[in-house]
Each structure stands twice: as structure tokens, then as C-alpha cells.
TrEMBL record:
One GO process term, biological-process aspect: isopentenyl diphosphate biosynthetic process, methylerythritol 4-phosphate pathway
GO MF term set: 4-(cytidine 5'-diphospho)-2-C-methyl-D-erythritol kinase activity; ATP binding
Gene designation per UniProt: ispE
EC number: 2.7.1.148
Signal peptide range: none
Binding site for ATP: P111, V112, A113, S114, G115, I116, G117, G118, G119, S120, A121
Active site residues according to the UniProt entry: K25, D153
Name assigned to this protein: 4-diphosphocytidyl-2-C-methyl-D-erythritol kinase
Length: 300
């Protein structure tokens, strides 16, 4: 009998490449409930994650480096300080010891600056990937605390499962029980900067949403969501009128149960009874748009 090689316990070997998906973050509703003294807005949002995703890969390398690939990488090339590299530096600092070099590759498939948390999801995926690559063994809450320093939306992306998000994004609790449903995403290929959309919001703040413990099926979920809203949708439409056309096109798709903008836009989504219906419907949208149809990641 051959002797079994001694197995490393706990820490992951650092000489192996690791990969983590960075799924699109969708705000099924987004109520702006107030504003902090520092200008950040208080939110109440039910967040789910779509099958559409970027991917972050790490392999051994010198120092921290980042290569970009994928169909949407062009929009990022000009950015000197990508959130993925900031995540790497932050995690290395928190580890407080010498760590091997990490060569990061970001496969960018989600449109940039589009309300589905691409940059936030990438940063969260980088934290998860490097936590494994370096064998740091940091638990979810510790990663979420680091994530908050990278952006309000990054903590919710660490677990990438259905979550109710409150505070400025750091107060996370379990989402109500969600039925199976499908989703179409559409972006008219305009990028919007989040601060400008928040600044253009007017009128009184919204109350938090009242949510049940669970929804029986996709139709019941859609009906409940129709009574809620995304408070950033009106300011986004006034700054970017094509969003209204995207919402119209989504609502007109066969089988669409409801349509809404996600985050600060311009990406909008429509709900469907299942992933197959959404996948078919997405193909009916204008090919010049970024469009995607499929399923949603379930609770863990
Ligand atoms: O945290 P992040 O860098 O993603 O936020 C970008 C900008 O969006 C902030 O500088 C702020 O203007 C606005 N924002 C906000 N309230 C939040 C999240 C973001 O006002 N909860």
C-alpha cells in the first residue's frame, strides 16, 4: 500500500489557482428611508443575485497584479485603481503578515456602472478568492466588515445570497422565503454614476418595506413587489430617459410579471415564472442592449 501524503489541515495551499464568481446584484425593491449626517443614504432593499456573473481568478504571482478579460473589460481599462486590487491590499493588511504574491484576473461580463453591483461583486469575490488562496480562514462577518470599507454594496455581495439590506448597506438579515423565479436583465448601454442619482432624488423619504415571512410563488412575489418601489428610478429616468423605454420593453415581454430598475440604474429587470421563460424572453429584446435571462441564486 502506498503511504498517504500528509494532508494540510485548515489552510488552503497557496500554490493552487482559485476562482470565485461575482454574481450580478439585483435590488427587487429599494426604499431610501433617510440620510446620514455624512451624506450616505439609509436604505431598505431586498437583494437577490442572478446567474449572470463576473469571475475573479487568483494564481501565484509577484506582488499584487490585475489583468482584465471578458466582453465588458474595455470600460474598466482606464481605471487606475480597480476595486479588486483595493480589496487585495485591504485583505493583506488585515492579515498582518507576509503573504505570497497574487496575480488576479477579472473576467468582466457584467456592464460597468450599471446598478447591478458589478464593481462591488468583483471586490467581494476578490476577498473570498484571496481568503482561500492565502488560507486566511476569515469567516463571513470578518470579510463583510472589510467589505464595507470598499463600498456600501460590497458586504451584501460577500455571501451573494438573497438578503435584506438596510442601514447604508451594512445591516444584513435573511430575506423572506423566496419562490423559484426567473429574471431578465437589460441595460441600454449607458453607464450612470451612483452619487448623481442619489443627489437627484427629491421628495420625502420612504418607510421601510413590510415583507411577509415567505411568498408562495413567483406571481405572489411580483404582486408584493409592485406595491413597493425603487426610489432611485424616478431620478435615474429624469437623468437618463432611455431607462423608461427599457422598462416598457421589459414589461411587454411575454410572461413578464413585473419590471423595475435595479440600484441606481440603468440596468432594469423583469420577473418571470421560471428561468427558462426568462431565458427565452431575453432574446426578444434589442440586440444592441446588454441583455441576459435565467435563474436566481437560491438561499444557502
Ligand atoms: O459606497 P459606494 O462607493 O458604492 O457609494 C457610491 C456613492 O453612492 C456614495 O459616495 C454616495 O454618494 C452614494 N451612496 C449613498 N448611500 C448609500 C450608498 C451609496 O448615498 N447607501
Amino acid at each position: 500500500l502506498a503511504m498517504e501524503a500528509p494532508r494540510r489541515m485548515g489552510a488552503a495551499p497557496v500554490d493552487e489557482a482559485v476562482a470565485e464568481l461575482a454574481p450580478a446584484k439585483i435590488n427587487l425593491h429599494l426604499h431610501v428611508t433617510g440620510r446620514r449626517a455624512d451624506g450616505y443614504h439609509l436604505l431598505d432593499s431586498l437583494v437577490v443575485f442572478a446567474g449572470a456573473a463576473d469571475e475573479v481568478m487568483v494564481e501565484p504571482g509577484e506582488g499584487h497584479s490585475l489583468r482584465l478579460g471578458g466582453p465588458e473589460a474595455g470600460a474598466l481599462a482606464a481605471e487606475p485603481d480597480n476595486l479588486v486590487l483595493r480589496a487585495a491590499r485591504l485583505l493583506a493588511e488585515a492579515a498582518g503578515r507576509d503573504l505570497p504574491g497574487a496575480a488576479l484576473l477579472l473576467e468582466k461580463r457584467l456592464p460597468v456602472a450599471s446598478g447591478i453591483g458589478g464593481g462591488s461583486a468583483d471586490a467581494a469575490a476578490a476577498l473570498r478568492a484571496l481568503n482561500r488562496f492565502w488560507g486566511l480562514g476569515m469567516a463571513g462577518p470578518a470579510l463583510e466588515a472589510l467589505a464595507l470599507r470598499l463600498g456600501a454594496d460590497v458586504p451584501v455581495c460577500v455571501a451573494s445570497r438573497p438578503t435584506r439590506m438596510q442601514g447604508v448597506g451594512e445591516v444584513l438579515s435573511a430575506a423572506p422565503g423566496l419562490p423559484a423565479f426567473g429574471m431578465v436583465l437589460a441595460n441600454p448601454r449607458v453607464s450612470l454614476a451612483t452619487p448623481g442619482i442619489f443627489a437627484a432624488r427629491t421628495g420625502p423619504f420612504s418607510p421601510p418595506a413590510v415583507l411577509p415571512a415567505r411568498w408562495a410563488d413567483a406571481a405572489a412575489l411580483a404582486e408584493a413587489l409592485r406595491a413597493l418601489r425603487n426610489d432611485l428610478e424616478p431620478p435615474a429616468i429624469s437623468l437618463c430617459p432611455p431607462i423608461a423605454g427599457v422598462l416598457e420593453a421589459l414589461s411587454a415581454l411575454p410572461g413578464a410579471l413585473m419590471a423595475r430598475m435595479s440600484g441606481s440604474g440603468a440596468t432594469c429587470f423583469a420577473l418571470f415564472a421560471d428561468a427558462a421563460a426568462a431565458e427565452h424572453a431575453a432574446m426578444l429584446l434589442p440586440p444592441a442592449w446588454w441583455r441576459w435571462g435565467g435563474g436566481v441564486r437560491a438561499a444557502a
